[in-house]
Amino acid sequence: MKKLIQLEELLLFVLGFFLFLKLELSWWWFFALLLTPDIGMFGYIFGNKVGAWTYNLFHHRGIAVICYVMGSFLWENQWLALAGIILFSHAAMDRMLGYGLKYESGFHDTHLGTVGKRKN
User: Fold this and answer.
1) Tens of pLDDT along 30-89?
2) What is the mean pLDDT of residues 5-14?
3) How far is CA 91 from CA 49, 63, 75, 95, 97, in A?
4) Of 95, 85, 91, 89, nearest to 6 (Cα)?
5) Percent helix, strand, coil in the chain (nearest 5)?
6) Rounded to 5 degrees, what angle do the CA atoms 74, 75, 76 make?
7) pTM score, whole prediction
8) Distance (Å, rounded) from C-alpha 16 to C-alpha 8?
């Protein structure tokens, strides 16, 4: 099952790159911006509850799709569409690597299971 989920996430990542290519930006912007959603990790400075909330905000596919649809179809705003594509693609990449949405119990506890090593 793990391999099937990884394949699904890889295909979603490719979809995000394909949608990016429809924008009027150089291809390298996709890879330059791909890690920007990890800014949500800074919430962990204020504890696990805030950290989980901010991390999940920047890694939620629903928010990514809303940004993309609003930017592409409602407001015709390339930058909002770009934000949606980057959020979507980054989430797919993370989940392909086993990093899921976070629980408030700590960074290592995700909806896909435990990742990394815990501090004792």
Assistant:
1) 999 999 999 999 999 999 999 999 999 999 999 999 999 999 999 999 999 999 999 999
2) 95
3) 20, 11, 24, 6, 10
4) 95
5) 70, 10, 25
6) 100
7) 0.87
8) 13
